[in-house]
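Researcher: Re-running this chain for the archive, since the previous output was lost when a drive failed. Same request as before.
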Amino acid sequence: QVQLVESGGGSVQIGGSLTLACAASRGFDDADAEWGWFRQAPGKAREGVAGIGTNGVATTTDSVKGRFTISRDSAKTTLFLEMNSLKPDDTAMYYCATGVYCANVLSPSEYDTWGQGTQVTVS
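Model: Regenerated structure tokens:
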């Protein structure tokens, strides 16, 4: 089973930028796999931030549109989340995940493999 390790989190000022990375123990060449970024703030449910479907199309949740970009490298071993114009509401633990046959790439319940998370704090 693939293992995922996130990195790149930290503390940043309002309006700043961070890029998160998710390294996979194998490539992303499973034709049936979707990949996504999720976040969970204290006391709140985990929510989908951005995802890439099997067709390669990226989807982002409305609250981060125009600010966050999901991508992956050509070797298909690392998933990225570029975050710009960060706001205090973006403060959360960020997780990457993978699943197969996900009807909604932004739904956490569709994914079965998760990384350990990386903390992002905006103040």
